[in-house]
Design goal:
The chain is an alpha/beta fold and about 270 residues long. The protein is built from 8 helices and 11 strands. A 9-stranded mixed sheet has the order 5-4-6-7-3-8-9-10-11, with helices on both faces. It has a two-stranded antiparallel ribbon with strand order 1-2. It starts with a helix and ends with a helix.
């Protein structure tokens, strides 16, 4: 009986090794994020059919959720256009969450996702009782090539989400071509097979702007399997559904009064100070 188990284990290890070798030889598809510097570091954009991790502390959970939604939006748009340049039917996004995540961060806002450019009609959410259930659900979903991407959201440290589990998710994503986005809130990065790893925070608003504007992310790429790392301020443009560099001299969101330019109050203060 022991010999049979040993043979089975050796066979499985050989299969995994062959799959990984084959995957390494393949050139992954990439989708440009829109931010020139980040895309250059990623050698053209985010690799599809791979696992990407996004980490944030507990206070930045909503920010990381928005960043992951942006990544998913880019993947969705890439999948919407065929290699021949023709539009094809969009595929759903599956978002797997622990019940605990919903308690800590609240439910996903479909109107909020729509503001970020995602189609709420294509977002399928799954609430899992625990990490094991969430992990199994995500792994099963990654085997379905009818999806664009799978988001696995896990709150806090999670022992089941170890290197072995990461390898299984990576193999499933490579076989199906479905992109996996792991959202880790309140957790410390651990060894994994992820293609990229990001640490995301809210970026400070540009000086002189007090009104609501586009979402700004302080995104640090701390792991990149095929290129350099870096840190950038990335602005999400909802209408274009892409990231970009923030404008160097942002203009007010509201239109300037018709009888004077928006710089008039500043110039008046300078004259008084002089």
């Amino acid at each position: 009986m022991t010999g049979a188990r040993t043979n089975t284990l050796a066979t499985l290890r050989g299969s995994i090794q062959r799959i990984e070798s084959h995957a390494e030889a393949m050139t992954p598809g990439r989708v440009a994020l829109g931010h020139a510097d980040a895309d250059a570091a990623l050698q053209g954009g985010l690799a599809t059919g791979a696992v990407h991790e996004v980490f944030a502390d507990g206070r930045q959970g909503a920010v990381a959720t928005g960043f992951v939604a942006g990544l998913a939006g880019r993947v969705s748009l890439a999948g919407h256009t065929s290699l021949a340049g023709r539009a094809s039917a969009r595929r759903p996004l599956l978002w797997v969450r622990q019940d605990f995540s919903e308690i800590e961060l609240g439910a996903l806002s479909m109107s909020g996702l729509a503001e970020l450019g995602l189609d709420p009609r294509l977002v399928v959410t799954v609430r899992a009782a625990d990490v094991d259930t969430a992990l199994r659900t995500a792994a099963d979903a990654l085997a379905c090539d009818a999806l664009d991407s799978v988001v696995l959201e896990v709150w806090g440290e999670a022992r089941p989400l170890d290197l072995v589990a990461s390898r299984k998710l990576t193999l499933a994503a490579q076989m199906s071509g479905v992109t996996a986005l792991l959202l880790r809130v309140g957790a410390e990065p651990q060894p994994s097979t992820a293609e990229t790893r990001w640490i995301v925070r809210a970026a400070h608003s540009p000086p002189g702007v007090s009104a609501w504007g586009a979402p700004l992310f302080d995104a640090q790429l701390v792991r990149n399997r095929h290129g350099p790392v870096g840190r950038w301020i990335m602005e999400w443009k909802c209408d274009e559904c892409l990231f970009s560099k923030p404008a160097a001299y942002p203009q007010p969101v509201a239109a300037a009064p018709a009888h004077r330019p928006h710089q008039a109050p500043v110039r008046a203060r300078q004259r008084r100070a002089g």
